[in-house]
UniProtKB/TrEMBL annotation:
<dbReference type="GO" id="GO:0016020">
    <property type="term" value="C:membrane"/>
</dbReference>
<dbReference type="InterPro" id="IPR004009">
    <property type="entry name" value="SH3_Myosin"/>
</dbReference>
<feature type="domain" description="Myosin N-terminal SH3-like">
    <location>
        <begin position="8"/>
        <end position="57"/>
    </location>
</feature>
<keyword id="KW-0067">ATP-binding</keyword>
<dbReference type="Pfam" id="PF00063">
    <property type="entry name" value="Myosin_head"/>
</dbReference>
<dbReference type="GO" id="GO:0016459">
    <property type="term" value="C:myosin complex"/>
</dbReference>
<dbReference type="InterPro" id="IPR037975">
    <property type="entry name" value="MyosinXI_CBD"/>
</dbReference>
<dbReference type="GO" id="GO:0000146">
    <property type="term" value="F:microfilament motor activity"/>
</dbReference>
<dbReference type="InterPro" id="IPR002710">
    <property type="entry name" value="Dilute_dom"/>
</dbReference>
<feature type="domain" description="Dilute">
    <location>
        <begin position="1131"/>
        <end position="1426"/>
    </location>
</feature>
<keyword id="KW-0677">Repeat</keyword>
<feature type="compositionally biased region" description="Basic and acidic residues">
    <location>
        <begin position="1068"/>
        <end position="1077"/>
    </location>
</feature>
<feature type="region of interest" description="Disordered">
    <location>
        <begin position="1054"/>
        <end position="1077"/>
    </location>
</feature>
<keyword id="KW-0009">Actin-binding</keyword>
<protein>
    <recommendedName>
        <fullName>Myosin-6-like</fullName>
    </recommendedName>
</protein>
<dbReference type="Pfam" id="PF01843">
    <property type="entry name" value="DIL"/>
</dbReference>
<dbReference type="Pfam" id="PF02736">
    <property type="entry name" value="Myosin_N"/>
</dbReference>
Length: 1478
């Protein structure tokens, strides 16, 4: 990867370091091929130039999100980029389309919430920050658009975060294509809930990870034609079966064994288990318990998860019986038996464990012992029973334990798949592969060999994919790439799996020979591959071998290769377990077919695994791959630790560096034209003045430096390895010369500035001295004048003091004398007034005593007479109440009859409609048949006419007929027969037409009869309604009469009886109030129809007030609709308003009805007194209560409509319901207008967040001065939309309060969209883009100022997040700003996470200025880590709630007088609406 680079003194370089892999430094000296480098660790190193890599001096402080954007694509550059991004919690990085995920070992919930998924929905790769959601979205979009299955390969070593990445992918795919499944659980949820089960039985503690998956997993999500998930399947690969029997410290066996030993006491007793240390399969390792792992709790969670995925309690018990049986099998120890080379259980303890195992398997104990200690050899003629020695019996026992556990794991996988459900009709899928990474331990056995074979296969697939992407890139850019070589690892794959001489083939061959050992197998390998470059034999090793893999050399120990490769079930084991009384155990070992049991063909783990691997690769080759490489930053599994050596090794094992090598084989450095010109334009001094395009400018720059081998594509410049460093070196030279010239000019400027300053200082000193002398002379003259004035004023003061003393003495004597005379006169007047007052009080007391005595006598007489009159009126009211009750009963009966007749009328109407419909259909059929018959008749008639004409012509040709008489007879007969046939057809058609007409007449007659019946029913209903209305009129008259009597009684009681007048003279004549009024119900309905017909039109506004709303309100008040228990007026009004919703896109119509509805709601709010809790308060029952109530007049408000002030009434249920419906309509219309505007401006906002790229020469574009970025047409379009809506709201006089709320929510929406885009897209967090957005915000601010606060309110404040973020982007010298300045002054509204995000994403695309200082970034990082418990996302959310209430709307109305609003002429001309004119 190292290319020849011409380094210069001062160049920044990378060199290898044994501690941190790579360390940076600066070149001090160059001696031929040797460089002297000053490292950042303050040590000086001399190294070869060929072992050094160049370092990018302009590397961004926050790294780049795509490795292909690196100026130098090499190992140290990749490592530095990952470390820098990891330090700022950017754990995801692209390498082209490959995603690298570094495990943060901490929770980052804001990266995976639902809002983040919405952001990545439909976003292309690279448009937003790197994320697994972007990879999943790309796979989903390609699957939907191209109808091609996709696959996502997640790889990495144990603990790198593969499982979490897989879960994120599954969540996003379920978000895009999820659907509800059975029992309320989605397919994705079932797949995720199967993880605890698979982890319990397939995960174990290893050296590197406490929860390492010891199997590979491929999850297939199947989709239907609409892109919805229709099914799923889980495939597993290469479960590590040997771990069941062999475990070394500090590792552990599978988790399920330890969970079972820590189960509740009842389960321990049921499954006959005890402490984990008492079982041989578990106590081989000293690690029994794990810190932070609660095995009893995990056991309960696993049982619960098994229930969730559909495993019944009986099946769970059977599963754990099998697990317990495996543990007891491990404790069966064998010793020599009585026969030679035989074996038997060693002691009673071994026999006890064997007995327990047989009981748990529910099989015969003796048969189980024989299957372990004996073997049956089948020959052609007979069966031979062979006994096994203790060693062979132990191997046989372990083989039984491994096959039982393997079959159990396979059963679990099949059960989970059947629970999830698959879609056989699905043609497209997305597969997610979670598989183990490359492994290289101190001891590597058969499992590591198979795992590394898998990674070699996947690496070849990965290399082909990367090479394909390179080819696509070169083809897209139209450059020559035919000479680029492809790096392949096919020789390693041939070494391992080629037949018949591959390692796997030789291993299978060794397993088939009974006397083969691992040593003979190793010797066979040494002989076969002694000259292979990828194979070697370690020194001092008898049976080890080394394979040179793509990720490094791995040495394998062959001791257990043969045993682990054998994959067959001992027939005795098959027979004993298939005969088990437990259905579950016998189901794990179904009886084999007779042909299979007799076959002796050998089967191996390696061969089966090779087949599975081939099947997996075929699936992957049939799909479009996507890659996620997970990296574990440290082995301590702690956050904020990045170990360079460890990460570099994982990058090698994950193939990332191999992909970089492929890129380096071609053109590793690729720069866009504008970036290339911005960086290297200074190499050609005249480039800024050229008028040529970017391609020509790039070519001239490259020609100027005389580079060779580069390529210029359509949008990028492609450079060979080392050419970027050469360009940087030339650029450094030019910058050095420019710096010297700048220093010379600056020194000259500084000297001149110093001289000018000295000269100016001398002149100022002289001026100061002259001024001081003049001021001193002036001070002396001023002092002399002051002395004279002081003497003058002092003499005047002494004279005035003597005069004032004499004057004050005289005045004091005069005042004393006058006061004494006045006091004497006042005393005499007080005595006289007191005597008069005593006399008046005494006379008043005597007169009051006489008055009170007369008053008590009068009141007693008046009370007696009023009581007599009241009792007489009470008797009359009781008689009237009885008559009212009888009328109420009659009214109820008639209402029931009306309802019944109404129901019958509706039934008759439905029957009539059905008959009309049937009649219409029958008529249509008959008319169609009639038309067909008429057509047929016409055709027949035409044929007959033609035949007649033909016959006539034939008869005219007499000579021809006479010559052939036989032919003439035949023709005449034929014509005659045809005529008869046509006549018969005509008669048939006429008969059918007559029948059709008869049926039509009968149907018409039946319809007329039913119509007459319906009319009779309607007449009867009308008559009953009239009767009901007359009864209602009588009731109203009775109530009015009673009210009049109350008023009369009250008036009688309020007048005192004088001179013995008789009360009967003031008695009201009750007969004068008994009038028969005509019913007004029908007229009211007619008036409602007239009102609705008028209101449906656009009545406009009068003096800024909606005419329709005020007209409707006055009519409702006049008709007493608010106090009615039942009325249909409200429903008619609501239906009229609802018509506006038919065209929701018309803001003009919606604003008109919003204005009217709001006004009507305001008037109702001021009119209705009651609420839902007390709709109809009880009236007073006593006579005196009614009298007291009549004293209270109606309540009035301060709002005037017409010529009257609004009177507050008690709200009835219809009025309250009407008010609720109006409220709902106001809220709905408000939301529609707001959402319409959001839909209009949302597409424009996507273009307003990023400044348009300048066309032409990029260098000229980059030297523009600050503040020249103007708003684009999209910003103007947004302002135009806002102005259009504001004009619409003003024209329709919508309350300013609602207008303010609409614009506040619109500006909040703009704020959310702009701010979230800034935080998610790094290309938006630039200096120039900040200026662009700032200019657009200035347009909005200008509009807000012009629109006036009355209509806009505080909408401008809703943009505070975006304003502060943009303000931070455009300030200069950010590196000098402290965190307190940013948090308290610049961006006080932003959270720590948001500030951290903006600071780390910022980059200057024009002047390459740096962001805030590293200390500020570090402080923010600590605060973000402390705030990690906060699950809130750093993104803003757009709220759609309604920001107002009915009371707030009504309180916003300032106008109180609506009396000048003129009603429409259409109503005022009607005599029934004359109240609108009054």
């Amino acid at each position: 990867m190292v290319a020849s680079v011409n380094f210069a003194v001062g160049s920044l370089v990378w060199l290898e370091d044994p501690d941190v892999s790579w360390i940076d430094g600066q070149v001090l000296e160059i001696n031929g091929d040797e460089l002297k480098v000053q490292c950042t660790s303050d040590k000086t190193v001399v190294c070869k130039a060929s072992s050094v890599y160049p370092k990018d001096p302009e590397f961004p402080s926050c790294g780049v999100d795509d490795m292909t954007k690196l100026a130098y694509l090499n190992e140290p550059g990749v490592l530095q980029n990952l470390k820098v991004r990891y330090d700022i919690n950017e754990i995801y990085t692209y390498t082209g389309n490959i995603l690298i995920a570094v495990n943060p070992f901490r929770r980052l919930p804001h990266l995976y919430d639902g809002h983040m998924m919405e952001q990545y929905k439909g976003a292309a790769i690279g448009e937003l920050s790197p994320h697994p959601f972007a990879v999943a979205d790309s796979a989903y979009r390609q699957m939907i658009n191209d109808r091609i299955s996709q696959s996502i390969l997640v790889s990495g070593e144990s603990g790198a975060g593969k499982t979490e990445s897989t879960k994120s992918l599954m969540r996003y795919l379920a978000f895009m294509g999820g659907r509800a499944a059975d029992e309320g659980r989605s397919v994705e949820q079932k797949v995720l809930e199967s993880n605890p089960v698979l982890e319990a039985f397939g995960n174990a503690k290893t050296v590197r990870n406490n929860n390492s998956s010891r199997f590979g997993k491929f999850v297939e999500l199947q989709f239907d034609d609409r892109g919805r998930i229709s099914g799923a399947a889980i495939r597993t690969y290469l479960l590590e079966r040997s771990r069941v029997c062999q475990v070394s410290s500090p590792e552990r066996n599978y988790h399920c064994f330890y969970m079972l030993c820590a189960a509740p006491p009842e389960d321990i007793k049921k499954f006959r288990v005890g402490s984990a240390r008492s079982f041989r399969y578990l106590n081989q390792s000293e690690c029994i318990e794990l810190d932070g792992i609660d095995d009893p709790k995990e056991y309960a969670l696993t049982r619960n998860a098994m229930s969730v995925v559909g495993i019944s309690d009986e099946e769970q018990d059977a599963i754990f019986r099998v697990v317990a049986a495996v543990l007891h099998l491990g404790n069966v120890v064998f010793a020599k038996g009585s026969e030679p080379d035989s074996s038997e259980p060693k002691d009673d303890d071994a026999r006890n464990h064997l007995k327990i195992a047989a009981e748990l398997f529910m099989c015969d104990e003796k048969g189980l012992e024989d299957s372990l200690c004996k073997r049956v050899i089948v020959t052609r003629d007979d069966k031979i029973l062979k006994v096994l020695d203790p060693v062979a019996a132990t191997i046989n026992r372990d083989a039984l334990a491994k096959i039982v556990y393997s079959r159990l794991f396979d059963w679990l996988v099949n059960k989970i798949n059947s629970s999830i459900g698959q879609d056989p009709s699905s043609k497209i899928l997305i597969g997610v592969l979670d598989i183990y990474g490359f492994e290289s331990f101190k001891t590597n056995s058969f499992e590591q060999f198979c795992i590394n074979l898998t990674n070699e296969k996947l690496q070849q697939h990965f290399n082909q994919h990367v090479f394909k992407m390179e080819q696509e890139e070169y083809t897209k850019e139209q450059i020559n790439w035919s000479y680029i070589e492809f790096i392949d690892n096919q020789d390693v794959l041939d070494l391992i799996e080629k037949k018949p001489s591959g390692i796997l083939a030789l291993l299978d061959e060794a397993c088939m020979f009974p006397r083969s050992t691992h040593e003979t197998f190793a010797q066979k390998l040494y002989q076969t591959f002694k000259d292979h470059k990828r194979f070697s034999k370690p020194k001092l090793a008898r049976s080890d071998f080394t394979v040179v893999h793509y990720a490094g050399d791995v040495t394998y120990q062959t001791e257990f290769f043969l045993d682990k490769n054998k994959d067959y079930v001992v027939p005795e084991h098959q027979a004993i377990l298939s005969a088990s009384k437990c259905p579950f155990v016998s189901g794990l070992f179904p009886p084999l077919p007779e042909e299979s049991s007799k076959s002796s063909k050998f089967s191996s783990i390696g061969a089966r695994f090779k087949q599975q691997l081939q099947s997996l690769l075929e699936t992957l080759n049939a799909t479009e791959p996507h890659y996620i490489r997970c990296v574990k930053p440290n082995n301590a599994l702690k956050p904020a630790i990045f170990e360079n050596t460890n990460v570099l090794q994982q990058l090698r094992c994950g193939g990332v560096l191999e992909a970089i090598r492929i890129s380096c084989a071609g053109y590793p450095t690729r720069k866009n034209f504008n970036e290339f010109i911005a960086r290297f334009g200074i190499l050609e001094t005249n480039v800024a003045s050229w008028s040529c395009d970017e391609i020509t400018a790039c070519k001239r720059i490259l020609e100027k430096v005389k580079l060779e081998g580069y390529q210029v594509g359509k949008t990028k410049v492609f450079l060979r390895a080392g050419q970027m460093a050469e360009l940087d070196a030339r650029r450094t030279e030019v910058l050095g010369r420019s710096a010297a010239k700048i220093q010379m000019k600056f020194r000259s400027y500084r000297c001149r500035k110093r001289f000018v300053l000295l000269r100016q200082s001398a002149i100022e000193i002289q001026n100061v001295c002259r001024g001081q002398i003049a001021r001193h002379r002036f001070e002396c003259l001023r002092r002399e004048d002051a002395c004279v004035k002081i003497q003058k004023y002092y003499r005047r003061f002494l004279a005035r003091k003597s005069y004032n003393s004499m004057y004050s003495s005289a005045v004091c004597i005069q005042a004393g004398m006058r006061g004494m005379a006045a006091r004497n006169d006042l005393l005499f007047r007080r005595k006289k007034k007191a005597a008069i007052l005593i006399q008046s009080q005494c006379r008043r007391h005597l007169a009051r005593l006489r008055y009170l005595k007369l008053k008590r006598a009068s009141i007693a007489m008046q009370c007696a007479w009023r009581g007599r009159v009241a009792r007489r009126e009470l008797r009359k009211l009781r008689m009237a109440a009885k008559e009212t009750g009888a009328l109420q009963e009659a009214k109820s009966k008639l209402e029931k009859e009306v309802e019944e007749l109404t129901w019958r009328l509706q039934l008759e109407k439905r029957i009539r409609a059905d008959v009309e419909e049937a009649k219409t259909q029958e008529n249509a059929k008959l008319q169609a048949a009639l038309k067909e018959l008429q057509l047929e008749f016409q055709e027949t008639k035409d044929k007959l006419t033609k035949e007649c004409e033909a016959a006539k012509k034939a008869s005219e040709q007499v000579p021809a007929v006479q010559e052939v008489p036989v032919a003439d007879h035949e023709l005449v007969n034929k014509i005659t027969a045809e005529n008869e046939t046509l006549k018969a057809t005509v008669r048939e058609l006429e008969r059918k037409i007559e029948e059709t007409e008869k049926k039509y007449e009968e149907t018409s007659k039946l319809c007329e009869e039913r119509l007459q019946e319906a009319k009779d029913a309607e007449a009867k209903i009308t008559e009953l309604k009239a009767t009901v209305q007359s009864l209602e009129g009588k009731l109203v008259e009775m109530e009015a009469h009673g009210e009049a009597l109350h008023q009369q009684v009250l008036s009688n009681s309020s007048q005192p009886l004088e001179n013995g007048q008789d009360g009967n003279a003031q008695k009201l004549d009750s007969d004068s109030y008994e009038k028969n009024n005509k019913s007004q119900i029908e007229r009211l309905h007619e008036n409602v129809d007239v009102l609705i017909t008028c209101v449906e039109k656009n009545l406009g506004f009068c003096q800024g007030k909606p005419v329709a709303a005020i007209t409707v309100y006055r009519c409702l008040v006049q008709w007493n609709a608010f106090e009615a228990e039942k009325t249909s007026v409200f429903d008619r009004v609501i239906q009229t308003i609802g018509i506006a919703f038919e065209n929701q896109d018309d803001n003009e119509q919606m604003a008109y009805w919003l204005s009217n509805t709001t006004m009507l709601l305001f008037l109702l709010q001021r009119t209705l007194k009651g609420n839902g809790g007390s709709q109809n308060p009880a009236a007073p029952t006593s006579f005196f209560g009614r009298v007291a109530q009549s004293f209270r007049g109606p309540a009035f408000t301060d709002v005037k409509v017409g010529k009257d002030v609004i009177r507050v009434v008690e709200a009835k249920y219809p009025a309250l319901l009407f008010k609720q419906q109006l409220t709902a309509y106001v809220e709905t219309m408000y939301g529609i207008i707001r959402d319409n505007l959001k839909r209009e401006i949302s597409p424009l906002l996507a273009s307003c967040i990023q400044a348009p790229r300048a066309k032409g020469n990029a260098l000229r574009a980059s030297v523009k001065s600050f503040g020249q970025a103007g708003p684009s047409t999209n910003w103007h379009s947004i302002v135009d939309n806002l102005e259009a809506l504001l004009c619409t709201m003003k024209e329709n006089f919508v309350p300013p309060y609602l207008t303010q709320k609409i614009f506040s929510q619109i500006f909040a929406h703009i704020n959310v969209q702009l701010f979230n885009s800034l935080l998610l897209r790094r290309e938006c967090c630039t200096f120039s883009n900040g200026e662009f957005v700032k200019s657009g915000l200035a347009e909005l601010e200008t509009w807000c100022g012009q629109a006036k606060e009355e209509f806009v309110g505080s909408a401008w404040d809703e943009l505070k997040h975006t304003r502060q973020a943009v303000g931070f982007l455009v300030i200069h010298q950010k590196s000098r700003i402290s965190y307190d300045d940013i948090a308290n002054d610049l961006c006080p509204i932003l959270s720590v996470q948001q500030l951290y995000r903006v600071c780390t994403l910022y980059w200057d695309d024009n002047y390459n200025t740096r962001s805030v200082s590293p200390d500020v970034i570090s402080n923010m990082k600590v605060l973000v880590a402390d705030d990690s418990s906060n699950d809130h996302s750093f993104l803003l959310e757009d709220s759609a709630r309604l920001p107002f209430s009915v009371d707030e709307i009504c309180n916003s109305f300032q106008e109180k007088d609506y009396s000048e609003v003129k009603s429409p002429e259409e109503l005022t001309e009607n005599s029934d609406f004359q109240f609108l004119v009054e």
